[in-house]
Amino acid sequence: FDILPIRGRLEPGQTEEISYLYYGHEESKVQGIACCHVLGGPVYEVNLCGEASWVAYNIDRAELFFKPRELDQTETTEIYLSNTGKVHFDYMIDMTAVRVPVLEISPLQGRIKAGDKQKFTVKFYARIPEVIDETFHIYVAYFEPIPIRVH
To answer: Which pTM does this prediction carry?
Structure first.
């Protein structure tokens, strides 16, 4: 653990925010006690616990198939991104590779806590009389993007 600041002086009634940083090795869990010595006063103890784990996730499908539609009709489906690990992570939807504006996806970004899952609503708008073959990407934490094909 690193504790910042490591020392300092406070006037009566003054407060200061303290940062506790844990640099863990994968799949490790540690506990400790930090002691704050007050000159001429008591010693305060703070219990510390840190755990490190891998980011782990699962996406329920990587291809979406929409039925043929009349122009100006819509169809909606869902995709789920599950956080199967012990660490929360951020995600972002990247639509820059979609050439034809026929998709609307919500939400476009956010954070998924450990053990939770996020539902994405994907709306397809039949705007052109062509077969659609598009790809958007889901970025999860620092991993390579996940391509999602739309037909």
So the answer is: 0.71
- As a whole number of angstroms, the distance between CA 78 and CA 97 comes to 20
Q: Rounded to whole angstroms, how far apart are CA atoms 81 and 117?
A: 6
**DSSP calls for the chain:** -EEESSS----TT-----EEE--PPTTEEEEEEEEEEPTTS-EEEEEEEEEE----EEES-SEE------TT-EEEEEEEEEE-SSS-EEEEEE-TT--SS-EEEE--EEEE-TT-EEEEEEEEE--SSS---EEEEEEETTSPPEEEEE-
Give me the count of residues in the chain. Answer: 151
Q: What is the pLDDT of residues 7-28, one digit of tens each?
A: 888 888 999 999 988 888 777 8
CA 133 to CA 37: how far, in whole Å? Answer: 65
Task: Give every residue of the chain whose pLDDT is below 50, as ranges.
Answer: none
Among residues 138, 126, 141, 139, which one has the least CA distance to residue 62?
138
What is the pLDDT at residue 128? 79
Tokens of 117: 């899952």
